[in-house]
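FAQ
Q: What does a multi-component entry look like?
A: The components come first, one per line:
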Amino acid sequence: MTILDIQGVSKSFGGIKALSNVSFTVDEGSIFGLMGANGAGKTTLFGVIAGQIKPNTGSVAFRKQVITGKRPDQICRIGISRTFQIVRPFAGISVLDNVIVSALYGAAANNTHAEAREAGLAALEAVGLADAASQMAGELTLSGQKRLEIARALATGAELVLLDEVMAGLTPTEIERMVETLSELRHSRNLTFMLVEHVMGALMQLSDRILALDHGVPIAIGTPTEIAENEEVLKVYFG
Amino acid sequence: MKTLSIDLVAGIVLLAAALVLPLTGMDYLVGIAFNLAMWVALTQSWSILSAMTGYVSLGHVVFCGIGAYMVALTTGSLPLAASLGFAGLAAGVSALVIGLPVLRVRGPYFVILTFGLAELVKNVIVQIETGLGQFSRLIFDAPPLNSLYLVMLGLAVAVTVAAVFVRHSKLGRGLIAIRENEEAAEAIGVPVIRLKLIAFVAAAIIPGIVGGVMLLRTSYFEAAQAFDPVISFSIVTMAIVGGSGSARGPILGAFAFVLLSELLWARFPQLYMIILGILLILFILFVPRGLSGLLDRKEARQ
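Then the predicted structure of the entire assembly, as tokens:
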């Protein structure tokens, strides 16, 4: 079953084409990886899906419903949430309060404080942050704040979660834990993930399918093995 | 929960004292209490917008002025209660109209824009009044001080209850998320534009009515006075001194400010603004979370 359908999306900033004619679909329950060098358009694509960036042409459909042109908060309530590459914690409130807001306003729309608290705690538990619940979010380590980004996305009750470089800046041990966490979450919560990642090992290990972008142009799409053997990809990456 | 019940007891004692006060017949004290209630109402309403969302308004007086003007225009032809209701309505509608464009800018730009807008409205009304040949309007048959005081007290209590309620509601949590990071708030489903507008309008209604009651107290309308920017500055000062992390901050701030003003006015009128200025700087530097922040720390230690 297709959960996300992207057709002919293009986006220019000034004269620079950040995305040109990108089309692909994402299957429900899968992990879909995006790869490409800095400036390849990965984060722009996330912005287009989550509503922060309006594409010049093309459309994004979630479960057959076209969401292009909707505001980020509307798209979140439909069931898509994203994390930010540069973490954006609500630094001045507790870790638990961070996820409670998500649970109150996101797609799950928990109506009572008790429900939201429970959903928030479950999200913290899922990413291994339960012990830090009462800590101020601004006091977390980078690894903790990356986890909080994921917990906040989960607590919205989203079905499709866009993870933007959640492993950048983490130690190899932390990356290993993050990979475990994500594969666990996918099954336990029946989630679909899209992943932007520079840590290639993790991307290859987690993804069912990968789209390779080069300066906004899709150059290859396929399983990790197909991508690793693709001549176009090898040329762009290794010259 | 414990601090909430202590606050509740303190609030009830304070309210009881405030209600008994007019029976003493000491107009001087009632006058001070009137000012206190007025500043509590203004600072508390300001904090619903500015402390919760981080959109610091330096033009809160504009809503007082609009309310005062409405009462000045309608008093005599409408019953007083209707006049005051109209004042609150006019302030709320004005906030709805100016809110959408104004809330698009953030940080220092928002601060300056609100200040400029308040000055703009003031000058427009000065021009209108001049054009009409009115330099000031006298209000006849204003109610006695004791009645006005009770109305002001009611407003202070109402807005304090509202502030406590908002802080613990879904709305309040959304507003705090906007303050902490607006893009992240929007990404987790918080309808940021709608929430900011709700806070802006909610924060405007009470000052509108307060402005009307202030006018009845002075029984004299003059635009430059009704829209005096010093009122906006005082509100921000009280919020800083009292702290705006909780609903008791504005109350503590208003007390500190009014008591200090009374002392300073009586003894060192020429040093009044200087001492107030120094105090403000000291608080910003050394007590950034205000008096209520100090209390929080003390309670946390016990």
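Q: Is there any commentary attached?
A: Sometimes. For this entry: The domain at 2-238 of chain A is CATH 3.40.50.300 (Rossmann fold).
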